[in-house]
């Protein structure tokens, strides 16, 4: 989740070794750090601050920013190449790349200075590499510190992601036993009355649990809907005419592409039935509205309820579990709201997938 970053990408094994410069946030972070470094180097180059001119400061800012941008572009282009190596070897390659960029940029600046200085007639090696050793030592030293920081930060991010994965898996485990207990009770009650229906329910139940035992992942929204329909078939046999389900889907052509964490919608439907429909003696309707527009998924569930008969504690646990799982995958894009008014309980959730 992770995800940060959706979990599908957050838990991906194909990761940058120390940063992902394809994201504007990381590029901005790099530029801010490099400009701060440029200011420090500019101040360190003079004995007194009064000697520091604006032109000198701009030279340092432009030089360091240029090296930083070139470094980010090179790392982005070399991503597949770097992932072939051990993390430490990849960091050494990046360090050597940084040294080469510093040295080549120094030479380029010296050549430009020579072209603008008419007092010099000949361009020799000493002129081209003037100040190169100084820049390499400073750039290499600071580069080692920065790479070490980025490496430690990446380790910390990976630890957070591992903890997040464990938390999401624990939340899933808290949902499944509840569903298993109630479903098996339904099957047992049907064996003596209608063995054929009991067999069909076991087939649907096995399909649900086959999905629940798969690896933690996102699935197509269409697959989640199919699983929910299996679940509702089980409950419709148990509740009979008391349960009426109304589906409304907008953007059906996007259901195969839209993403949702596996078994997210099913616990909410289970919540609608066990804390709403079961307490009703007459036919009651569970309404499901699903809308997919521009990678934005919106889901609205409504069910009747009776005040005083509803187990608000179990209701809250199920909703909180699903909310935490969605936030683990989609972060700040998640909106999760519940309303209870005039005998109707409404669950509204939306998120944006990539």
Automatic annotation (TrEMBL):
Keyword tRNA processing recorded: no
Q: Which residues form a coiled coil?
A: none
Is-annotated flag, keyword Phosphoprotein? no
Q: Which InterPro entries match?
A: Bact_2-comp_sensor_kinase (IPR050640), Sig_transdc_His_kin_internal (IPR010559)
**Pfam family for this entry, one:** His_kinase
Gene Ontology terms for molecular function? phosphorelay sensor kinase activity
Keywords attached to this entry: Membrane, Transmembrane, Transmembrane helix
Q: Which residues cross the membrane?
A: 27-46, 52-76, 88-112, 132-151
Q: Name one GO cellular component term.
A: membrane
Signal transduction histidine kinase internal region domain location is: 166-243
Q: Indicate what this protein is called per its UniProt record.
A: Alginate biosynthesis protein
Source organism of the structure? Acinetobacter populi
